[in-house]
Design brief:
mainly alpha; four-stranded mixed sheet; disordered N terminus
């Protein structure tokens, strides 16, 4: 089954040999026979084909049949000078025939693959030159990007579309599920009257903000409804103690982008983006029933506060600690923003025990020095508090007589609160509000078509009710056997990783032992949790099909209520956090040394009970292996089996790791240089992408070894190897708009899709053996990098 590859040569005799070899492949694989050729020459009698039917080459493969027919009929004779008897062998003609024969041989190497995989392949590309283009080329050419699409991905989009189609039916037919009820309420939408009734209490609230007291009361009411103004809070794993939750406080997400506020700070001129924000404010405030004068005044005030907030919490402000977590107490907030009644806020939000001075409490402390009876208070991006104090204390509103123009100051704050409340609700109100926001998004991010109503409702349901949606997805569509199948796959991959650690010569014995202990301590959460969390049923009996916006409100209130309780609980090591079983992805958490494979990704074309194991391991298996290897990547290898940062390896082993990782950094640094126009002179940052590159390398390697041994009594064929590698490559078939590709090159911790394939497989000897790639070709370089 090992198919020889032909490489055109400057030598006529080498080209002739390659041609004959490739034709032999054709004959061996499909029963091609050359019957008598009546005469030598270009016009000789046509050759008959035995065992080759034109009907076998339908569906875009007609060119393969034509090439076979030409090769078998006249082209070899022509290349050997048959039309000019007595002439020497012709290098150019022989090279042309060798190219055609290689084309046929490439196709025959994958001709028995599943049809959907073959459809993506471009057999005119030599797999030894560029395996990504070979595996994805035909799909890529046929999948052009329309003006409203920025990126498409072969595998991932198929899964997303498949789940969306399944869940649309579930949402439309399930009678009792909270996510289904919410979805149907969204389909019905919100009437103008209901929109007015929803906004009116919030508009009244904004108009009554005239002092520090009424301000803090308004913030409590707004944040209890799961909305944020001026600052945000959240409950998450404690930065200093992963066995506890903490209360995190940080500044707001502003609507003025970095280029806009930088330009304004330097020139005093509003950008087009700021002008668009001004239009948005005026339109939404007008839709809420206010006159043009009020809307224009609100726009001035909103832009003023947005600029102030943006510049106050950014690196542009010159802060060196703007993005660090700070362990603080309540006194820190009182010191930074004394104009705000923080005690009232903490008590009203049910956080009265959080942030008190621990020195005054005779209680037991955790290892980091936090009282065990009180969650830690953590401030993120601390400069926002200085800006908040300037706003609430009316800095800049001093009059000539030394007094403060409090009316103008609070008028500005009122405008900001009013607009933000309308903007927060706009997606859930009547169509006029949604259309205005959509137009603003188009102006800011580029034209995008308005979603069909059912698609919007699907997105809202799976976002706001992720766990309730996941429960319906698993119970109504997901084969439960896939959970055990994936667990077995993960166990097999872990076994191969463990074997590799045993034979890793650059690790000292104690470091090897510690690494295996970490691997064994890694837990797997697959498909869905064995015990569903309370959020599945949190909103049961509280949602109605007749009031979409009210449902959104109820979901928000219940989420806040739960978070205020959760902050005092102990987090489970295997908690899913902000992810859900319906998500199409997989995750590794270095903090707890755990791996999650949601049901959403255990779908075709990543996995099927009907697939050959080569395809399952090449697709889903390499993704699982990728996440597992994150435990031993450039950051994961610094953490021990419990996810704690310790010197758990010998120093020489750390040095050896860095040396091998450096090889990958240098390798990936070169990618992108070959297409300077596409990346506008940029290239992959091998250091920034190192962790993901290590995970890609290890994930593919260990999945391949696990696949090899999944049938211990049967030796895997080279055809199965080729299927595995092609399945891996097609995981990453992707088309991006150029601006998106450039942005990802600069900001994404993953290498571009193409280089994820080329980098990994060019380092892996079994790949070059499967496709018989000569040393020195693009996919079989002399120098290879290997870490794990």
């Amino acid at each position: 089954n090992l198919q020889p590859r032909s490489v055109a040569s400057a030598s006529a005799m080498r080209a002739l040999f390659a041609t004959v070899a490739a034709l032999a492949v054709v004959a061996a694989c499909i029963g091609l026979a050359l019957i008598a050729q009546a005469g030598r020459g270009y016009g000789g009698v046509a050759t008959a084909l035995i065992g080759v039917r034109q009907s076998d080459f339908d569906n875009g493969k007609e060119h393969i049949f034509r090439t076979i027919k030409h090769l078998a009929g006249w082209k070899v004779d022509w290349a050997m000078g048959g039309d000019q008897p007595g002439t020497p062998l012709n290098d150019e003609r022989l090279a042309d025939v060798a190219k055609d024969a290689a084309h046929v041989a490439s196709y025959l190497q994958v001709s028995e693959f599943p049809k959907d995989m073959v459809a993506a392949i471009d057999p005119s590309i030599d797999p030894c030159d560029d395996f990504y283009e070979f595996s994805c080329g035909h799909w890529s050419e046929s999948k052009s990007l329309s003006a409203d699409v920025v990126s498409v991905a072969l595998q991932w989009d198929q899964v997303d579309d498949g789940i969306e189609k399944q869940m649309r039916h579930v949402f439309e037919t399930d009678p009792d599920g909270t996510a289904a009820i919410f979805y149907r309420s969204c389909l019905k939408g919100t009437s103008s009257i209901d929109s007015w009734n929803m906004l009116t209490p919030w508009m009244d609230l904004s108009e009554n903000i005239t002092s520090n007291t009424s301000f803090i009361d308004a913030m409590v009411e707004i944040q209890n409804a799961d909305m944020s103004l001026f600052w945000t809070w959240s409950v998450d794993i404690d930065t200093w103690n992963k066995h506890r939750y903490a209360l995190f406080m940080k500044g707001p997400q502003t609507m003025v982008g970095a280029p806009d506020y930088k330009n304004y700070a330097e020139t005093g001129i509003e950008s087009d983006g700021m002008a668009g924000l001004r239009d948005l404010v005026e339109s939404l405030v007008g839709l809420a029933g206010y006159d043009a004068k009020t809307a224009a005044n609100d726009a001035d005030n909103v832009i003023s506060i947005e600029l102030q907030l943006a510049m106050g919490q950014s690196n542009f402000s010159g802060s060196s600690r703007a993005h660090y977590d700070q362990w603080v107490d309540r006194e820190f907030f009182e010191m930074k923003a004394p104009s705000i009644d923080w005690d009232t806020w903490f008590v009203a939000m049910n956080f009265s025990e959080i942030g008190l001075d621990e020195d005054s409490q005779d209680v037991e402390m955790d290892e980091a020095g936090q009282p065990l009876n009180s969650p830690r208070l953590i401030c993120k991006q601390g400069d926002w508090l200085d800006t908040l104090e300037d706003i609430i204390s009316c800095a800049g509103y001093e009059l000539d007589d030394g007094t403060i123009d409090t009316e103008a100051c609070w008028d500005r704050i009122e405008s900001y609160v009013r607009f933000k409340m309308i903007y927060n609700y706009a997606p859930y109100l009547d169509a006029d509000f949604g259309d205005v926001v959509h137009e603003w998004h188009n102006a800011r991010y580029g034209a995008m078509p308005k979603k069909q109503r059912w698609k919007k409702c699907y997105s809202d349901a799976t976002y706001l009710l992720g766990w309730a949606s996941s429960y319906l997805f698993v119970e109504r569509t997901f084969p439960k056997s896939r959970k055990q199948d994936t667990l077995e796959m993960l166990d097999n991959i872990r076994d191969e990783f463990r074997s590799a650690l045993d034979s890793t010569r650059w690790m000292d014995p104690l470091s090897q032992k510690a690494a295996k202990e970490k691997l064994d301590n890694m837990f797997f959460e697959v498909g869905y949790p064995d015990e569903w969390p309370e959020s599945v049923s949190r909103n049961e009996g509280q949602l109605v099909e007749e009031n979409y916006a009210a449902n959104v409100d109820m979901i928000g209130y219940n989420a806040v209520k739960r978070a205020r309780i959760r902050v005092f609980e102990t987090p489970a090591r295997n908690r899913w956090g902000e992810s859900y079983p319906i998500v199409v992805n997989a995750f590794y958490s270095p903090m707890v040394n755990g791996l999650w494979v949601p049901a959403g990704i255990i779908q075709t074309p990543f996995y099927s009970e009907d697939y050959d194991q080569a395809r399952n391991y090449g697709s889903l298996g390499t993704i699982c292996g990728h996440e597992m290897t994150h435990g031993f990547d450039d950051t994961g290898h610094l953490l021990d089996k419990n996810g704690d940062e310790k010197d758990w390896w010998d120093s020489s082993t750390f040095d050896e790791f860095d040396q091998r990782a450096g090889c990958l950094t240098d390798q990936y640094d070169l990618y992108g240089n070959e297409v300077p126009d596409w990346y506008q002179g940029g290239h992959v940052d091998g250091q920034n992408t190192l962790g993901e590159n290590i995970a890609d390398e290890g994930g593919m390697r260990f999945a391949f070894e696990a696949f090899q041994r999944s049938h211990p009594k049967e030796r895997r064929s080279m055809a199965e190897h080729r299927l595995f590698f092609t399945a891996f490559a097609q995981n990453w078939c992707e088309n991006d708009r150029q601006d998106i590709a450039i942005d990802s090159l600069e900001s994404d911790e993953h290498s571009p899709a193409k280089y994820r394939v080329l980098g990994v497989l060019s380092n892996f000897k079994p790949f070059s053996q499967a496709f018989n790639c000569p040393v020195g070709t693009g996919m079989n370089p002399k120098k290879k990098c290997e870490l794990w």
